Write the structure tokens for this entry.
Amino acid sequence: MGRKSREIIRAKADEVIGDLTKAYADEWLAHYQYWLAARWIRGLDADTMRDILIEQSNDELGHAEKIANRIIQLGGTPTMDPGKLIQTSGCGYKQPASDPTDLKQVIQDVLDAEACAIETYSKLAEKYRTTDLVTHEMFEELLEDEVGDEEEWEKLAGIWIK
Ligand SMILES: [Fe+2]
Ligand SMILES: [Fe+2]
């Protein structure tokens, strides 16, 4: 990052990198959770749900990429050891239900993950509103995406959970 870009950041770099590292883990774990659920689920509605899971799993990977780029820009190092992702994550990881036909559980788990992401990004966007505008903007974009995800899954819950 260049001199002026560093100058305009008033937040402590370590603190920003710490928050980004947490979010980075959350995104990888959400990506993995959705990706695996897409392969695992079986049953009548599984094909429809699979496509949505794959699409959103790709979105979460895109989020992880944005966050990694910002960590590097700030002079940090994205988590190199994947074994550390659960440790550093804020929202944690929910493994797919042992019963692959339990689609209600998949929906619930995704809704829980999205709710946690929304809470996290709304807090972080607020936190850096005046001290790190680039990070603030990125969290705002991520928040907008997760709000859209939650809306989509709530609609699906209305169809599939009766
Ligand atoms: Fe995400
Ligand atoms: Fe999401």
